[in-house]
Amino acid sequence: MAVLVCAPGVWAVDTIKIGFNIPLTGDIPKVGEGSKYAAEILLAEVNGAGGIKVGDKTYMLQFIYEDNESKAESATAAALKLITQDQVLAVIGPQASKQAIPAGEVCNSYKTPMISPWSTNPQTTTDRPYVFRACFLDPFQGPVAAKFASEEFQAKKAAVLYDIASDYPMGLAQYFKEAFEKIHGPGSVVAFETFTTKDRDFSAQLTNIVKSGADVLFTPQYYDEVPLIVKQAHQLGWKKPIMGSDSWGSAELMKLCGDDCKGLFFTTHYAAAGAKGATKEFIDKYNAKYGYVPDDVAALTWDAIRLLIQAIQNTGGLTGNLDKDREKVKNALAQIKDFDGITGKMTFTPEGDPIKCAVVVKISDTGEFEFFKSVCP
Amino acid sequence: MVDLLLQNILNALQWGSFYALIALGYTLVYGVLLLINFAHGDIFMVGAYIGFFVANFLLGAYAFKLPTALSPPLVFALTIVATMALTALVGVTLERVAYRPLRRRGAPRLYVVITALMCGLLLENGNLALLGASRRSFPTLIPATVYDVGGVLVTNVKLLVILATILVFFFLETVVRKTKLGMAMRAVSYDRMAVPLMGIPVDRVIVFTFILGSSMAALGGVLFASAYPVLEPYMGALIGWKAFIAAVIGGIGEIRGAFVGGFLLGFVEIFVAALFPSTLRDLIAFSTLLVFLSFRPTGIFGVARATKI
After folding, report:
1. Interface ipTM > 0.95
2. For a disulfide at B253, which of A178, A276, B31, B188, Cβ 3.0-4.6 Å?
3. CA distance B72 to chain A (A)
């Protein structure tokens, strides 16, 4: 009996457990899939090379994937399970802000470092020293989109359609509105229409938008809703530009959307077409193994894991006491400067948010996400 | 202003059509068996998925192909027919496997309703387990053409959906009121104990009811997938619940009720979304309906307890 109890303990000494709180089912399963695949490639690479060296000891990595069903309540449950039951050193994810905000609260109160690769809502990291992210923020992304729409399309009036029951679209829609009205004056966002998660028919809202005389439609929705919105908009007579945000950048978007999405723009973290260096290496590895070009979530997850590994190595040695080690990793993460990720260089602010550039992508006539413009803070 | 109103009326007619087509399945089964078949929303989802596979097969997307390529309108027509037949089979299987044994053993109605709820969850999660959580895109069988009639825009898909629903209404009214089978359905509804004594095969009538209800849900599923071409395993859940409410508002057990209730709910939802922030949509829609029901608990066409269907 004693042997049975001790054995996992002994074995756990040279393993670092990292938890993944990701949506493998639910509304955005492709996001979870991309994150898991990126993690699997990195895991195979690191462990294949004999693990990572921290101080004078070598550790193997162990990844534990927990499905949060892309629901807020499941994300908190998943975070709790990873922290208390699986005893992970740190958590990667959740991806979407809707889950990352509540899960961040759990991780912070249990003093466990968490890095959300993809959550752009400021609330995720605000006043939470243990929570970090690997992407830019919506207060940065919203103005980038507003400025781009004004310059590129000469838009004087804008319309917004967003899901009011989800943190990410709601936050971003408001930042866009603020920024656009700052440029063109109050009332220049002529239609600010909402719907609720799971809606499939947007005809009433889109009818209002078409009649409002707006020059551009901004819709910061996830890839499973974008095709429906875009198709219905076209069927109701909308011929002007439509713009989106980083939630559009899924490998699945063009499969669902087809011709209707060609020629549209969105702001995002990286552009796969025309990538160079380490980014291209990652894309090629991923494509060779899984047969499609990875989306931004996969790239950001890759960066988030590498950031975490970097921080673990920077601690200069782990004690084996989980509470102390988690504290050490958190401190090391906060001090990372000029980290060279595949989605750009990152330096962390005291809030745990990286300072990095945004990319505007145009969906080409062949359905590829083409680099169009880069906007830095 | 007028064009805005007309546009929203068209939008509401399309949206209400789906509620009407699904509500019909609830109403038929309830009319005959006094059973609320809560799995019906998921039958609608199964219909959409079967339609997806049939259409892709006819388009030659799989290894096993038809010898000749078919024209898209023909593919669409064949998809609808084949999907209705296959989905009817699923509905009948459900009746055979889940509901009939309970009925034979004389289980109280509550148990049958719970079984129905369970069957719905089985279909959802079975789909999730078998086909995965990834979204599927329904192939474009009828390329959308937009017609502009004095500022009011309407697509061929929209017209087709509305027209099909109206045709289904007349078809079912004729079946139930004018045919022998309809008479048998009404008779079973009236008194299930006495009917076998008259030589009416009750089980066959019930199976036929399930065939009718499921195939209409399948028609709804294919049309829905043509209008909103993103499929997911849980797509039937919410719309199924709302269609059930529509059936109750119309007076469950009454075919006219299912259609009127479906379109009414469609109109309320679209107009509330057009005039108010969408957060208020379901709140206003269902409060209105609740108030309506408290004045007329049996729904628009419902009678306290008499022959239905």
Report:
1. no
2. B31
3. 17
